[in-house]
Amino acid sequence: MPSIYTLNLTALLALNGALFYARQQSQPSSPKPTPSKDGLQSLLTSPLTPFLSVYTLIMASDWLQGPYLYPLYTKTHSLPPHLIPPLFTTGFLSGAISGSFIGSLADTHGRKSACLSFCLIYALSCLLTTASSSLPVLFLGRMLGGLGTSLLFTVFESFLVSDFKNRGLEGRLGEMFGVMSTANSVVAIASGVVGEGIVGWAGTEKAPFWLAVVMLLVAGGVIWCSWEENYGQPARAEKDDNKKKDDKIRKTGSSLLKTLCSPTVLALGLSTTVFEGSMYLFVFFWAPALQSLSSAGTALPYGVIFAAFMASTLASSLIFSRITSRLSFSSLLLALLGVSSACFFLASSTTASSQFTFWVFCLFEACVGMYFPTMGYLKGKLIGDEVRSQVYGFLRIPLNVFVVVALLITGRMEGERAFVEVFRVCSGLLLVAAGGFWGLVVKRGGDV
């Protein structure tokens, strides 16, 4: 007889099927062409389709590794448990440090080049992670992994936003981010299935990392052949004399500082740090939370539960465009912060049933599915293109520091107290972020 989690997953997949069918039915069969749609149609050959193909490949390479990094360290490399937290912390520290300079390099030397660098760096990280059980090699792999993650969540989005603006498609950014969120959810579900299958076939947890390397190399080839370079605004006048170059550097530095200190960006930074930091902590603690609440003594079907979470993310991405047609992006982000705070508060209960907590987790994952396209649109709208990658990079510094500090603190906690305290703190911080965003953006008339 199927487990309750298998039935839950089946129900969520059926819901996704119904939502997809409803969305297809709601679209007109032969829409009249409009200038913006014609512009989007012209992008189907260059570079929208290449971008989406690259995006699915790089996200698949990331999803493939995630579930198998811990067992790779503990089973394949036979590392003692006390060495695992330092390895993960190294990755987050690397991401925090690199966030201070990779954005500037991308804006100056080109975002296409930065995307190519990501493919090479992340592929090398995968190879080092699987090549040897030597601690220096494994720590170097984590350092490169942290650098790659910073590039992944900085330069690709910067490239996309700049390219859309150059083509006069800025108004369709929200739609594009919705498509990316849906694609990411589908890729996550498929990666979980493929990863489990390839591990069973190859008999080693190294196999998903090897497949990720292949995907990254293919993505790099597509980028090299079909993408056009774009820069931050100051990099486009390479032939200016030295005085003009110095003026541009000062202007860029002033613009960066002004942007980072603006109330809007401060609110976005606080929201990014707290929401995504809580999301990373959720990844660490959802399994022990469900296990501690489970009445059965047997291990939970973690693969099925993960697929259910991703199905929840997919469901929310399928209704994203319908919601944003009725609600502004700023108001939606405010709602997501509030609902997520409630989810973490409810999940901190030690008396709730495992099924209740499971569905609370699914609701949070639905918030995640809407958060990324919402935040992507808001950053694209509210941050200037000339310093975009730099600002995106700096916004990831407090996020990585938040996660490192949280992991160092929770590493000293024992038993069920760890997830209870972590979830309660996340709930409170999400409320603070919601209040900050309301006061600094929505209340000031910055509703976008």
From TrEMBL:
Pfam families to which the protein is assigned, alphabetical: MFS_5
UniProt entry tagged with the keyword GTP-binding: no
Membrane-spanning residues: 6-22, 43-63, 83-102, 114-133, 139-161, 173-195, 207-227, 265-287, 299-320, 332-350, 356-378, 390-410, 422-442
InterPro entries with a match to the protein in the record: MFS_dom, MFS_trans_sf, MOT2/MFSD5
Assigned keywords, A-Z: Cell membrane, Ion transport, Membrane, Transmembrane, Transmembrane helix, Transport
Gene Ontology CC terms, in alphabetical order: plasma membrane
Location, primary (coarse class): membrane
Source species, domain of life: Eukaryota
Membrane topology annotation: Multi-pass membrane protein
Molecular function terms, GO-annotated: molybdate ion transmembrane transporter activity
Domain (Major facilitator superfamily (MFS) profile): residue spans on this chain: 42-445
An individual GO BP term: monoatomic ion transport
Intracellular or extracellular location(s): Cell membrane
PANTHER family noted in UniProt: MOLYBDATE-ANION TRANSPORTER (PTHR23516:SF1), SAM (S-ADENOSYL METHIONINE) TRANSPORTER (PTHR23516)
Function (record text): Mediates high-affinity intracellular uptake of the rare oligo-element molybdenum.
Protein name per Swiss-Prot or TrEMBL: Molybdate-anion transporter
Organism listed in the record: Triangularia verruculosa
